[in-house]
Amino acid sequence: MSLRVRLLASDPIRHRGLASVVEQAGFAVADDAPDVLLCDLADGAAPPAELDAPALVLTDSAAPAQVAGVLPRAASPAQLDAALRAVAAGLLVRPQGTTLSAPGFRSAEDAPSLTAREAEILVLVGQGLSNKGIARRLGISVHTVKFHLEALFEKIGATSRAEAVVLGLRHGVIEL
Fold first, then answer.
1. Hey, is 104 helix, strand or coil?
2. Label partner for 32 (CA 20 to 30 A): which of 3, 75, 118, 133?
3. For residue range 105-124, what is the model confidence (pLDDT) as tens digits?
4. Residue 108 belongs to some domain of the structure
5. Which pLDDT does position 171 carry in this prediction?
6. Residues 82 and 115 in one domain
């Protein structure tokens, strides 16, 4: 898969290093019509307001919710390769252990954060799986699934599975 990757890095040395990683992965560095943007956000910088392609952001601080992918700035070339492919394919990429913010459910001050497991369960609910089906898929007990569902319902203010999925879709927490 040959991707066209647009690089955004303010440090010229970092830009050259990322260009080398991108090219070694078999992708093309391009300024026009990119398939993916690779943004190096040093010192809390923000990605461009107008994104002309899905963005993979390299940052050591909190990343904006509108980007498709987030990795630490010290990500390995293999991680960058996999993340670029995933983002180009329409997937969301987050480092392991990252919580997914759910902006817009309430005021910005008390916007809930779903754990990775809660978000994973919400996606499976959106796919129509029952609690028993989710438990089998994740290798956990039905009781544990119910526990996570109750916690995420409370966080997002949902009263039913359907409402939780609608809120998750509407606010970008999950994609189907």
1. coil
2. 75
3. 333 334 467 787 888 898 88
4. yes
5. 67
6. no
Q: Rounded CA gap, 81 and 56, in Å?
A: 11
In a domain, 40, yes or no: yes
Which CATH number goes with the domain that contains 135? Answer: 1.10.10.10
**Stated pTM of the model:** 0.57
What would the mean pLDDT of 32-60 be, rounded to a whole number?
Answer: 82
Q: Which domain holds residue 105?
A: 100-170
Query: What CA–CA distance (Å, rounded) separates 46 from 19?
Result: 20
What the block records as the tokens of 167 is 């809120």
Please name which of 70, 42, 43, 41 lies closest in space to residue 55, comparing C-alpha atoms: 70
Q: Return the amino acid letter for 7.
A: L
Q: At residue 44, does pLDDT exceed 80?
A: no
Q: How many CB atoms lie within 10 A of CB 10?
A: 12
75 and 49 in one domain?
Answer: yes
